[in-house]
Design brief:
The chain is α/β, with parallel strands linked by helices. It has one domain: Purple Acid Phosphatase, chain A, domain 2 (4-Layer Sandwich). The chain has 6 helices and 13 strands. Strands 1, 2, 3, 4, 11, 12 and 13 form a 7-stranded mixed β-sheet that branches. Strands 5-6-7-8-10-9 form a 6-stranded mixed β-sheet. Helix 1 links the parallel strand 1 and strand 2. The chain starts with a strand and ends with a strand.
Length: 264
Amino acid sequence: MPKILFLGDIVGRPGRDAVRARVQALRAERGFDLVIANGENAAAGAGLTAIIAKELLDAGVDALTLGDHVWDQRNFDAEIGGLERVCRPANLPTQCPGRTHLIVTAAGGFRLGVFTVLGRNFMNMKGECPFATADKILREHGKEADAWIVEAHMEATSEKVALGWYLDGRCAAVLGSHTHIPTADTTLRPRGTAYQSDLGMSGPYASVIGRNVQTAIARFLDGIPRKSEVAEGDVRLCGCVVEIESATGLAVKAERFEESFPKS
């Protein structure tokens, strides 16, 4: 029964350091067959680069997803096509570079399909309907994998919840990301799809969603734009563990994952 760890948004160097230090050990300690992570905040808190993607993949992550910060780093649009285990949000305009989904294979041959859809509420990027895009990928590529995990990179919790119900029974999990705060609603939907509204971030929690506390407070007080550095304290890896029945491609167990770094 494959066991998958999906880590929430890796934020800056603190998040990357935790991934490098712990992912390989976690695979051995917890028996994870595959580790997936959202890497959209891995480069100084905004975006990803090919060098950092390779660093995370070499550290034991099997696949990296991205969100609304996908194009924040200069020239990443030219790099993403060469990254075979990195996918952009699937519902971006079709002319955007990069893969819309990934299929990664565990040591025992289990094939997991992964893709991300962006929300359309309170988001600044143009995207096609996430519900229709999920339908299309599962319809056209569903048989290429033994199970699928759909990442809902969305601001509105209601949109994530609705997608979780919409895809119940058609994928192993719908896991939310983007807001960087882990939610306590991990569950199995009635037809076998695991759900969590937000995985949280893998990064510094002595922060305002990963950024320096005082800078964030000052911006709320006076509205003046400021450069906001990635914070450093209370680093944690956060996400969700999903166990999947290979024969059905559906989840049999899901639980929140959280670990402090250094490990306490």
